[in-house]
Structures are given as C-alpha cells and as structure tokens.
Amino acid sequence: MTEMTSPHRVPYATASTTSTVSIGPHAGRFGRFGRELGYLLTGLPLGIAAFVVAVAGFSFGLGTLVVWLGLPVLVGLLRAARGFARVERRRVESATGRALPPHHYRERGGSGFGGLVRALGDPQSWRDLLHMVVAFPARVVGFCLALTWTVGTVGELLYVTWSWAVPRDGDDQTLLDLMFGVDSRVADIAFNTGIGVLMAASAIPVIRALVALQSGLARGLLTNRYAAERARR
C-alpha cells in the first residue's frame, strides 16, 4: 500500500487501499466560510434521503427476515449505507480542509447464504447505518440555522433599502417600538442595521460550530482508526 501526498492532498484509508482526496488550497476565511455554508445547506436533502432509506430499508428488512427476504434487503441496505458514508466523508473533508481518520470494512468473503450472513457482521457498516439516522436531526438544525442566519444577516444589513415597505400606520409597530417604545424611522433603521452587524460578526463562529457538530458525528461513526490500523498490520 502506498500513499501519495502533496501540499493540498490528504490520504484516507479504506479496507483495501489508500486514496487521496483533493482538498484544494485554502481561499482565506471567507473561502472556508463558503465551503462550510454549502456543506450545511446541502446536508438537508442528503439527510432526508439517507434517513428515508435507513428507516424504510431497516423496517422492511427486519419485518421480512422471518421469510428470509429480509436478509438480502438488510445486506443491500448496509451497502447503501457505505455509499452514503463515502459521500459524507468527502463532504466533511472538503468543508473542513482536513482528512478524517481512516476507516476499515471487513471483507465479505464467500457467496450465497453464508456470504450474506457474513456481510451482516461488519461493524462499520452498521455504524454507517446508525449515522444515517442520528445525523438527520443535526442536519435539519444545521440547515435551518445556517439559512436563517445568513438570510437574516443580509436582510438586516440591507434594512435601509426596504424599510419603506414596513407598515407604520395605526397600530402597526416596528421591532424597536415593541421592545423600547421608540417610534422613529431613523432609530429603527439604525437598530436593525446594528442587529445585522452583530449577526454578520457572529456568522462565522455559528456556522463553524454547526459544521463541527456534524463533522464530529462523522468522525465518531464513520471512522474506525484502530480497526484500520489492525487491518494494515
């Protein structure tokens, strides 16, 4: 087994080979922010697909196991889990710019009924399946907060351009009026712009914390350094 490294390529190990993932040069703080934001926003559709496949596949496989149909269904589900895990590892490495620890899958070996049973005995495949389920809530939260934070930041910073559309007659009240009883257009614009500045200043740490949560799940469930090292030895 050989490993090829370069200043912008990092290796990761699988059961049979060591591959390289192109991370690309860091484009500064905002380049990293863009990658992390893209990671969070694309996580929801991937999470929905993974969750549906995991829950539906496991329920159907377990329910039909008594007539043996569930055995190939569960094996196929674990193969699908490997595919989702492979995609998530690449996404995490691209977003963070760092390689994840290595991972290892047991060789299936054999065919027929015995091969199917042995395929169900791979611990890492079950960890991949577990990740498809437990990562779903984190992906929903990450998507909602990332979208709300970025759209809200832009909206508040540009409040001066659209504040004219806010109703100000009769019982209509602005946020500043509701909070402090101040009914002033200039003060309202300054207040909302200030909120936008605060949101912009906190956007990077908020997005980074959300990415750290999801990448931590991937690191904990989609890698198994000690098993990979034992396999290499």
Question: What brief labels describe this structure?
Answer:
233 residues, mainly alpha, 4% strand
The count of DSSP E runs of length 2 or more, i.e. the number of strands, is 2
Quickly give the structural class. mainly alpha
Radius of gyration: 24 Å
Query: What is the straight-line distance between the termini?
Result: 11 Å
Count of DSSP H/I helices: 8
Note the beta-strand portion. Answer: under 5%
Unreliable segments of 5+ consecutive residues? 1-26
What general form does the structure show? Answer: elongated
Largest sheet: 2 strands, antiparallel
Task: Kindly state the percentage of residues in helix.
Answer: 55-70%
Secondary-structure element order, as H and E?
EEHHHHHHHH
What does this structure look like?
By secondary structure, the chain is mostly helical. Helices cover 69% and strands 4% of the residues. It contains 8 helices and 2 strands; from the N terminus they run ββαααααααα. It has a two-stranded antiparallel ribbon. β1 and β2 form a beta hairpin. The longest helix has 37 residues. The termini are close together. The N terminus is likely disordered.
Write a brief caption for the model.
This protein is mainly α. Helix content is 69%, strand content 4%. A hairpin with a 4-residue loop joins strand 1 and strand 2.
